[in-house]
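Hi team, as promised in this morning's meeting, here are the two structures we talked about. I've kept the exact order from the run log so nobody has to guess. The first one is mostly here for context; it's the second one we should focus on when we meet again. Sequence first, then the predicted structure tokens.
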Amino acid sequence: MAAAGAISGTRSGITGLLRLRRPAARNPAIAAGSLADGGDPIWGRQLCRSLIHLDRSFPPSRIAAAAVFKKGGLLRPVAAAASSSPAEGSDHVGEAEVGFAAKYPALVTGFFFFMWYFLNVIFNIINKKIYNYFPYPYFVSVIHLSVGVVYCLVSWAVGLPKRAPIDSNLLKLLIPVAVGHAIGHVTSNVSFAAVAVSFTHTIKALEPFFNAAASQFILGQQIPLTLWLSLAPVVIGVSVASLTELSFNWTGFISAMISNISFTYRSIYSKKAMIDMDSTNVYAYISIIALFVCIPPAILLEGPQLMQHGFKDAIGKVGMTKFLSDLFWVGMFYHLYNQLAANTLERVAPLTHAVGNVLKRVFVIGFSIIVFGNKISTQTGIGTCIAIGGVALYSYIKAKMEEEKRDNIFVR
């Protein structure tokens, strides 16, 4: 099942949701990994990094053995492997416990990146093709979540992974996050249906600007001037691209902007709603709650049209089999690409993650232009490149700052 990122944007997708996890240990020197400062809450990585700083003579092979996969693809520390004595036969035992992922981490991570990009591109292509003959984004958004929820329920039923219990207190923490997730998802799809996929992703490149503004003016965190300056190319690039975009309309533009705001809202509440639950289960519960949030507007805004002619027109254009097949696969690819995104983000450092997110957006924009043959003006192309370059610069600076903060904490 998908772990809790979020879904599109520089860290839009599911990244904000990953912050829901609380470090399992209570060591203040390490647990101060500073979520409030934008730190990475992935406990397995934090513990391994602290071990490296505490003992720089620690053999690399043992460091690799200090983390193994558990259910959901999450990294966890293995104290026994890290602290095995040099007694006779200990090396043999340690090597026996190291799986393929620990032996070849770069290969596994590369595979995750490839599948993340591949599934994301396929999702965007199928999604847009559906809107070309079935322009009902609220209903399609419900289908996305419905397929994912069914996937989660089946996975729970077979115990892969085991369902984590939830109570009213946890539910209260997750509801605001799920509401932001639902609104951001629906408005993204409204934009995808209204304008070219490449243009929606260009607008969504503004999400770091909204995140920075919310961090400083709502959460009270001081954003360095260098970060604000790095956002200037993003704003300028999006403005240039918007002014000359051939497929521009206000519905698509405003919906993409609302999506940015919604995912920022989700990110804020993700920082506040720290719960001790693995990200796979967190995202499953958020998907279920978000589905209930999305159903009422879909019925109210599109229900009458769907019953009168929406379904009939779609079936008449592509046939019943293809229509149902497209809806199923777009939902499945939506869920799976979010799952791969979460698994990938949990395996890499913030800087690698930041670069990966930028490259993902480049892939999606590039492939959508090729597949759909979207004509873009020279100014739009230049604006898009400027915006993506600004996102890359912002992500690089922010990731370096986060790594330096964590390194300073670990060496104290």
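And here is the second protein, the one for discussion:
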Amino acid sequence: MTSRIDYSVWDHIEVSDDEDDTHPNIDTPSLFKWRHEARVERMDQFIKAGEDLEKGLAESKRKLTEAQKKTKNLSSSVTDDAKAELSKAQAEEKRLKKEERDWEKKLEDHRREEKKMPWNVDTLCKEGFSKSVMNVKPDVKDETEEQKEQKHKTFVEKYEKEIKHFGMMKRWDDSQKYLSDNSHLVCEETANYLVIMCIDLEVEEKKALMEQVAHQTIVMQFILELAKSLKVDPRGCFRQFFAKIKTADQQYQDAFNDELESFKERVRGRAKIRIERAMKEYEEEERQKRLGPGGLDPAEVYESLPEEMQKCFDEKDIAMLQTVITKLDPTEAKVHMKRCIDSGLWVPNSRADEGDDKEEDATYEELNKEMGEQKIE
């Protein structure tokens, strides 16, 4: 007989945001590490508030018990002083009863609020949810990063087409049926590939497709977190997720949508970083291509030249450059022309039988002769 589990406790499930289980191929330390510290802090504050309410109620009950005893003792006395004290004691007892009701109401409201709070891995991992007699997930040995990477690569090579097909689905029923027919896809490798797929689509500016695949990524992540919380094989509990999400109340649906929006923002952020990195790499490649024989960038060298020399290169006027050079300090002129040669900004006559030093000297001392024969590149 199959054990029945009360799945009503998952009215509001949050995707785990404190686990760093993403695959090494994913270009971010943890795309699912969302708002964990803030959430834990809120939980701690909420728990402390509950504890304070319970202490307050207990103290109120203690005071009321003492007041009731005092009232009982005074009621048996017939003296005028006792009657006066009795009247005060009864008034105090009445006040403490009201105070007790107030504490009870506050505690009841707190517990009602607790039931409305979204469930997550931190709250689900309790003794009551730690065991299940169906589809129990066997203990597995820790895998090395190399093993995880190879496992991911092998899985994707085999099932890439099926994963992409699942990522493009829109209807709950279609997704459930597809996973029923392809239950091997209910695993971390599928979720990891979908994350990469989302980032690739955002980089390619296929935003509508990215949002669709992002939806399916969160579907898979919800299933995996549910399985992790129950310590069962995810292939054995994905139907329960679909049964719940298709009949979810507004708060559950809001929780799902909130995680989806958070994930899409993360994807956009990672895509932006990837694009910026690619642009920097492209710019560096172009810079390397521009480097002259001496390893200098002609654009950088040009920017370092005096304005008068820059104008000469802008207008490709050799006569003007000759005039500017003669007006400069000889040492400064030699430094500038050496940098122009090393960057390829100026190409002197090729002299196979001369060394670099002779070429440098010729550049300055025989500039008048060479300028008539060279073109400024």
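Starting points for discussion:
The two ends are 86 Å apart (CA to CA).
DSSP finds 15 helices and no strands in the chain.
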